[in-house]
Each structure stands twice: as structure tokens, then as C-alpha cells.
Write a structure and sequence with these properties.
About 70% of the residues lie in helices and about 0% in strands. The protein is built from 26 helices and no strands. It has helices at about 1-15, 30-35, 40-50, 50-65, 70-95, 105-120, 125, 130-150, 155-165, 175-185, 195-220, 225-240, 255-275, 280-290, 315-335, 340-365, 370-380, 385-395, 400-410, 415-430, 435-450, 455-470, 475-485, 490-505, 510-520, 525-535.
């Protein structure tokens, strides 16, 4: 077993060697704000509940600071642990109830774990720092299931609670346990009751109360067809990971709908067949389906397809793939003496190809620019992809290209307030101030037409003030600088901006008053101190 564990660890390190050098991307940049709430237990339970995941991030931060390298290393270690647990769990289940494949347990477990180790669809969970919670709750789910199988019920329950404290998506475990008991050990069903009781806590505190607000935030209606499309998409990507992307929002064709409903119908028939013929295969097919239940609902409370969502569920499908490969090996063995060599070569080729694709995908996760560029190319119909890529181009000071990308986003979604704000910012940095002012005003109109946070509006007021200041239209600059300050009266930077406008207007008395007020807020605030010196 040690040699197999070592091999699995080595192929993971090869496949993810380039992931450890990736930067913080997308949601990763909000980690410091989340850390500010660490220790606020009311916030943690009501708004997040990912206490263990947040705590691990906080620990990494306290030891090494905000260095993405260490976050990536921890993610890879967590993935290695999951792969080892998959090997042990699959091997254990092959001996369940006499319905398994005891003689084939080692090769099946090894193949399942090896595919899980390096499959490219899992890069979103492993290579993205924000994917950590998926890795953590998977560890606890697998460990809890393994302990339940070994009749360590109370310890299994404790580990399940840890899974819930890593991610509320762990609520699916009782369903997995029910399928396990129904398939192999029906007398154990009564031991699932405490697990089901524990699930009521996150259901009542987090999941149910947040459904309404999440639907309002998404501004989308329930779609009862999309769960079929999502389910079929995950199956396709697991068997053919050709178009991996952060946003799966390309237009659907009639063929896509036909494939989706056909895949769902075929899956149901296969489930019924293996319920009678092979309980192990049935269990893992159900494991895949149950693993996706939190994310294939018709309610628009999350992305309809996101590769990180399939991290845990994929184990079930990888087991099925391992069984298919083993079945082909057995079939060939009956006909050719050298068939094992063919099977070994075929499996090795699959592993190598998957590993190459994983390494290639990890290159997309290296920088904010490379990630959003790849996303915009692979998902040309996503306004969010073009908008984010445009802002990545702004960071690189490629303003003409940025404006082109941000314009594409607004063509796809003309009422996208943040898109207009971002385009205005790009115009402003490129010196096209009149166009920037027009876009800022458009963004303001869109923000004010719906209930929204004042943060974006304050930023627009600030940037509008800066644009008018550059145009030397000081009266307009003062109006917007003061509006921004009214929304954030404790902001020393905004206080200084008002003082700068007064300075430009020649009103040194008011300028001094605002610079002094800013310095009282932050005594060593260099910007306010610099302008105060200009008054002397």
C-alpha cells in the first residue's frame, strides 16, 4: 500500500507542480476581508459556517502572510489526502456484503484513485486557493463514510460535523449513508438518524434563509431544464475534458437539450440495471448523483455548472470508469495472452494524457491575466468573462485592449452597472475623460435603479470627481468629491480629495480644514500631509 500511496502522491506532484506558483485570482482577493470576521462567531455561523476552512486559511496567513505559494501547497496536500482516502474507501467497499469484487479491489481502488488524482476537471478545486473548502469537506465526508462502514458511528458523526463546518454542501452525507445501508447493510439504517438530525442545523440556519436573497441577487427565474443540462455537462466533462472554463454559459443548441435529456434518461436506466446486478456500481452511481444534488437545482442560487462543484461527486464516476477499464482488461485476457500489456499501456496512456491536460490547465491559473484571458477565449458569450479580462488588461495598462473587452461585455449585457463603471475607469486611465464621465453617469443610473450597496456609488463619485479635476472643472469636482465623502465620512482619502479640490479653487482655509481632519483620522497619512505642506 505504501508504494501505491507514494506513486499516487508523485503523479499529483507532477500534475500540479506548476499550480504552486499561481497568484491569488478572483475570489481569492476577498480573503483578507473574510479573515477580518474570523472570531466573530455570529457572522461565521449565520453568513458563512465554513469555520474550519476559514480557520485553516487564517492559520496559513498567520504563519506565512498573504503568500499564495503556501495556500497552493496546502491545497495540494489536501488533495493528496483525498486521493489516499479514495483508495482506502473504494478498496473497503469492494468487500461489502459479499456483493463486491474482493479479488479486484486493489486494481479498482488504484485506478479510481489515480484518475481522481490527476483529472483536469478537478483543477478548479485544487489550483484555485478559494477551492480549499471543497477539498476540506471532501476529506471529512470520505473519512466519515469510512468510519461509518467500520461501525465507528459516533466518531463518524463527529467527523461529519467537521465536514459541515467546512462547507454546508456536506449536508448530502446522510443520503450517501442511506444508499450505503440500503445496498449493503440495512440493519445499520437506524444509525443514520443522528446524521439526519444534525443536518437540520445548517438547513434551518443557513440554507433555507439564504435561498430567497440569493435568488433576488441573481435576478434570474427558476429553470427546471437546466438541472438536466448541468448533469449532462458534468458527465461529458468527466469523460472528455476538452473545454474547461470558469463560466459555462455558452448558448445551448437543440442538440444540447437532446443530449441532456438522453443522458439523464440513460443514467436512470443504468441505475435500475445495476441495482439488480451490482450493488457496488449502483452505490457509486448514486454517490455521483447525490454529490451533485446541492448544485443541480432549478433555483438560480449558484452557477448552473462550475467545475469545483463536481470534486466530491466525480469519485463515483471515476469508479465506474475504472470498472469499465477492468472489464475491458478481463475481456481481452480471454482472447490474448499479452492482453495485460495492452491494458497497462492503455491505462498509462490515459493517465499521461490526463496529466498533460491538467498541467496545461494549471497554466491558465498562473496569473489573473492568464486566467481571465483563457476564460474569455473559452467562454466568448460570458459578459463576466470579458469584463474580468478587461480589468486584467487594465492592470497591465493595455487600455485599448481593455476597452475593447469591456465593450464586448456590455454588448452581451447592456444593463451591467459594474461593466459601465469598469469601462469608465478604463476610459479615465487612458485619458478619454468625456467618455469616462458618460459611462460613470450610466453606471450611476443603473445602480440607483435597483437596491444596491453604496460602495460602488461612492467609488463612482470619487472617480467622477477625479475626472472633473483632471478637466479643471473644479466646481463639478467638488460636488462629486463631497458626495463621496457624505457616503463615507470616516474615509481619510475622500476627506483629502475634498481638500485638494478646495486647494485648486484657491480656498486654502477650507483645504487646510479637510487635510487636518484627514490627518486626525490617520496621523501618518502621506497624501494629506503632502498637500498640507503645499499650503505653506
Amino acid at each position: 500500500m505504501r508504494k501505491r500511496f507514494l506513486f499516487l502522491g508523485i503523479i499529483i506532484l507532477i500534475a500540479y507542480h506548476n499550480a504552486i506558483f499561481g497568484q491569488f485570482i478572483s475570489d481569492d482577493k476577498s480573503l483578507p476581508a473574510v479573515m477580518n470576521h474570523f472570531g466573530d462567531w455570529k457572522y461565521m455561523f449565520v453568513h458563512n459556517m465554513s469555520i474550519i476552512s476559514t480557520g485553516l486559511s487564517y492559520l496559513i496567513y498567520r504563519i506565512n502572510g498573504w503568500q499564495p505559494f503556501y495556500f497552493h501547497v496546502v491545497n495540494i496536500i489536501l488533495h493528496i489526502i483525498n486521493v489516499w482516502l479514495v483508495y482506502v474507501l473504494v478498496k473497503e467497499l469492494c468487500h461489502c456484503g459479499g456483493a463486491g469484487r474482493p479479488k479486484q479491489s486493489v486494481p479498482i481502488a488504484f485506478m479510481t484513485a489515480a484518475i481522481f488524482a490527476i483529472h483536469p476537471i478537478l483543477t478548479e478545486a485544487v489550483s484555485w486557493v478559494s477551492g480549499q473548502s471543497y477539498l476540506l469537506y471532501t476529506i471529512f465526508i470520505l473519512l466519515s463514510l469510512l468510519l461509518f462502514i467500520k461501525k465507528r458511528y459516533w466518531l463518524s458523526l463527529v467527523i461529519f460535523i467537521l465536514a459541515l463546518l467546512s462547507s454546508v454542501k456536506a449536508v448530502i452525507l446522510p443520503l450517501i449513508l442511506i444508499v450505503y445501508c440500503w445496498s449493503f447493510a440495512r440493519k445499520k439504517l437506524r444509525y443514520v438518524i443522528p446524521f439526519a438530525a444534525v443536518v437540520l442545523i445548517p438547513l434551518l440556519i443557513i440554507i433555507v434563509p439564504n435561498i430567497g436573497p440569493r435568488m433576488i441577487q441573481s435576478q434570474a427565474k427558476p429553470d427546471f431544464i437546466m438541472p438536466f443540462v448541468s448533469f449532462a455537462t458534468y458527465i461529458r466533462l468527466l469523460f472528455w475534458p476538452d473545454n474547461l472554463t470558469f463560466f459555462h454559459v455558452n448558448p445551448l443548441t437543440t442538440g444540447d437539450y437532446i443530449f441532456s435529456f438522453s443522458a439523464a434518461g440513460l443514467y436512470l436506466l443504468v441505475l435500475l440495471y445495476f441495482w439488480r446486478k451490482d450493488k457496488i456500481v449502483f452505490f457509486w452511481l448514486m454517490f455521483f448523483l447525490i454529490g451533485l444534488l446541492p448544485v443541480i437545482t432549478p433555483l438560480p442560487i449558484a452557477s448552473f455548472v462550475a467545475e469545483r462543484y463536481v470534486y466530491l461527486a466525480a469519485i463515483g464516476m471515476f469508479y465506474v470508469l475504472a470498472r469499465i477499464l477492468l472489464w475491458i482488461d478481463v475481456l481481452l485476457t480471454r482472447r490474448h495472452d499479452f492482453s495485460h500489456l495492452i491494458s497497462i499501456f492503455s491505462f498509462t496512456l490515459i493517465i499521461v494524457l490526463l496529466m498533460i491536460r491538467t498541467i496545461e490547465r494549471n497554466n491558465d491559473w498562473q496569473t489573473n491575466y492568464s486566467f481571465w484571458r483563457a476564460t474569455a477565449i473559452s467562454t466568448p458569450f460570458s459578459f463576466q468573462a470579458h469584463d474580468s479580462y478587461g480589468m486584467a488588461l487594465v492592470d497591465k495598462k493595455l487600455y485599448s485592449d481593455a476597452i475593447a473587452e469591456l465593450t464586448k461585455a456590455l454588448i452581451l449585457k447592456p444593463d451591467y452597472a459594474l461593466g459601465h463603471q469598469n469601462l469608465a475607469y478604463a476610459y479615465q486611465l487612458s485619458g478619454r475623460l468625456s467618455e469616462a464621465i458618460n459611462e460613470y453617469n450610466r453606471a450611476l443610473y443603473l445602480y440607483q435603479s435597483v437596491a444596491t450597496s453604496t460602495d460602488n456609488i461612492s467609488k463612482i463619485y470619487q472617480d467622477l470627481g477625479g475626472a472633473y479635476l483632471s478637466l479643471e472643472q473644479y466646481d463639478n469636482a467638488l460636488v462629486y468629491a463631497q458626495k463621496a465623502l457624505r457616503l463615507e465620512p470616516a474615509n481619510a482619502d475622500l476627506m483629502t480629495n475634498v481638500g485638494i479640490v478646495y486647494f485648486k479653487l484657491g480656498n486654502k482655509e477650507n483645504a487646510r480644514k479637510y487635510f487636518t481632519a484627514a490627518i486626525k483620522m490617520i496621523p501618518n497619512f502621506s497624501k494629506a500631509n503632502y498637500w498640507l505642506q503645499q499650503l505653506k
